[in-house]
Design brief:
alpha/beta; three-stranded antiparallel β-sheet; 12 helices; 19 strands; 35% helix; binds 2-keto-3-deoxygluconate; binds magnesium ion
Length: 402
């Protein structure tokens, strides 16, 4: 089954998405997500200029070989742009293989280890009471696990927390916004927030929290320890992923489970963290981590250390990534949880997915392949708009460096 062509579709139904479509001489096409928030065009160009010409004529069935061709063959290994481009190729090839065999993707990954995928929702509010209201909304909608973030007294804008009821979107149109951050105010507030959430919702609800790499190791250790009475499912990105020894320090001080890796793109970002058992969940998503072929190996490696998956799944990853992640999560043994933020309706104007949410879990249907269709004609109605993630300064103006 020869690859005859491939094209990159960049669209902006509310936010930017990059999708790779690979065509074969069997008349079967596959889709891969190639969205890298704030750097979309870099991946699109990488695919168009360097990958697509080298893909044409290859046998679409040889996924493992093609993966290594693009990973090792270019000399410049790793990096978010490269690994997102490779992921898009990989996802599209798995999609093609599963469509060709007329079976849902999970069947090619070992079949089902479970019926549904446990997911967590985001609850946010401009202040604690609005956050509590949003947690209640998520619980009423059936979620069994909720990530809780809130506006913080004394901080003008907390990352990823909309000031009004507008949908979650940390990227802003144009060049990066500059926001102000104050760690001391955050560290004073966060334990109070979780005390109140537990008081209102009791012990059963799984609670998660994202620190967005904002703390030094000793600050993170303080918070992880102070949150212990509230039994978090996980504390995410407590320190910057580059500082892996920081996680060792944190581990020495706390039993709060740790998740990290939404900005990772390689198994080599994880080797120390996994083998030294410094973390509990891997966050690297299929779309930024080289796709299924690479994540299968990372997840298997993690499984030997009793570390589970908890893939990144914010709305800046497309429905193609989410659907592929659900198949992956259904199949592997050491699945932990999946992040799920429903896309806006306008996104589903372009992407038609095969998944549904019910009582805390997500399910895919029996559609062959990954199970997502892209309406190219509609995609063209939403042209790319530059948008970037914000950067942070301390209140004295210093640029945050971790
Ligand atoms: O593009 C960046 C966002 O996806 C990220 O900030 C969201 O931290 C995030 C999360 O855990 O979903
Ligand atoms: Mg995060």
């Amino acid at each position: 089954m020869k690859i005859t062509d491939a094209k990159v579709i960049v669209c902006c139904p509310g936010r930017n998405f990059v999708t790779l479509k690979i065509f074969t001489d069997a008349g079967i096409c596959g889709l891969g997500d190639a969205t890298l928030n704030g750097r979309e065009k870099a991946v699109a160009t990488y695919l168009e200029e360097y990958c697509i010409p080298a893909l044409i004529g290859r046998d679409a069935r040889n996924i493992e070989d093609i993966w290594h061709y693009f990973y090792k063959g270019v000399y410049w290994k790793r990096g978010a742009v490269t690994m997102t481009a490779i992921a898009a190729i990989d996802l599209a090839l798995w999609d093609i293989k599963a469509r060709a065999l007329n079976t849902p993707l999970y069947n090619l990954l070992g079949g089902k280890s479970r019926d549904g995928v446990l997911v967590y929702a985001h609850a946010t509010g401009k202040d604690l009471e609005h956050t509590i209201e949003d947690v209640a909304t998520k619980v009423e909608s059936g979620f069994l696990a909720v990530r809780v973030q809130s506006g913080i007294p004394g901080i003008d804008h907390a990352y990823g927390v909309p000031k009004d009821k507008s949908p979650y979107e940390p990227a802003q149109k144009g060049l990066p916004n500059e926001e102000t951050w104050d760690t001391a105010k955050y560290l004073n507030f966060a334990p109070k927030m979780f005390a109140r959430v537990r008081e209102v919702f009791g012990e059963e609800l799984h609670l998660l929290h994202d620190m967005h790499h904002r703390c030094t190791p000793i600050e993170a250790a303080r918070l992880a320890r102070e949150l212990e009475p509230f039994h978090l499912f996980w504390l995410e990105d407590p320190v910057s992923g580059e500082l892996q020894e920081g996680l060792r320090l944190l581990r020495q001080h706390s039993t709060t489970p740790i998740a990290i890796g939404e900005v990772f793109n390689s198994v080599y970002d994880y080797t120390t963290l996994i083998t030294h058992q410094l973390i509990d969940y891997i966050r690297m998503p299929l779309v930024h981590g080289g796709g299924i072929t690479h994540l299968q190996k990372v997840a298997a490696f993690a499984s030997f250390y009793h570390i589970q998956t908890g893939f990144h799944g914010a709305t800046d990853l497309s429905p193609v990534n989410l659907a592929a992640s659900l198949h992956f999560n259904l199949a592997i043994n050491n699945f932990g949880i999946q992040e799920y933020m429903p896309h806006q309706q306008i996104v589903h104007d372009v992407f038609t997915p095969n998944y549904r949410f019910e009582n805390g879990f997500m399910y895919v249907d029996e559609t062959p392949g990954i199970g997502v269709e892209l309406n190219e004609e509609k995609a063209m109605r939403y042209p790319y708009q530059m948008a970037c993630l914000p950067i942070n300064r301390k209140s004295d103006g210093t640029l945050f460096y971790w």
